[in-house]
Design brief:
- By secondary structure, this protein is mostly helical.
- It is globular and about 35 Å long.
- The relative contact order is 0.14.
Length: 142
């Protein structure tokens, strides 16, 4: 399990480094603006946070996914990991998340915004976008 987390962390680090360094190394256009990664990852306190962040980044590829029939298994797996993380590490927030999910998308977003800005669940859901949030809501409604 630890080796998987190390591999995931190394993959995220390499992707972020290449995402920024590769366009800068290409000197085709003199006036080219460098591409900056959309994710700003702060220091994490435990390996589960790295796993949650890396799965969200890996699942953000833009494939069409619906909340009821997820055609992207990576996105569904990321949503399951997020729900498991909420259940295990944020036990007090799990009931609030479930209640917000039952009320709908807007209530769930309000719950996500109520979390601290450095909370890994909030970071991952903000990076993952609407499709990931819809699948998490579907899983929490069950």
């Amino acid at each position: 399990m630890t080796s998987k987390l190390r591999i995931a962390a190394a993959t995220v680090t390499a992707a972020l480094a290449l995402g920024v360094a590769a366009p800068m190394a290409n000197a085709v256009e003199a006036s080219r603006t460098p591409v900056v990664s959309a994710a700003q990852v702060e220091a994490v306190t435990n390996p589960a946070q790295v796993n949650a962040i890396s799965t969200a980044l890996a699942s953000q590829r833009g494939e069409a996914v619906t909340a009821k029939a997820a055609t992207n298994p990576d996105l569904l797996e990321a949503a399951k990991d997020i729900v498991a993380y909420i259940k295990k590490y944020l036990a007090k927030e799990y009931s609030k998340a479930k209640a917000a999910a039952k009320k709908g998308y807007a209530a769930f977003i309000k719950w996500v915004k109520s979390l601290k800005p450095d909370n890994p669940v909030r970071i991952v859901l903000e990076i993952g976008g609407k499709k990931l949030i819809e699948i998490v809501i579907t899983l929490l409604k069950k």
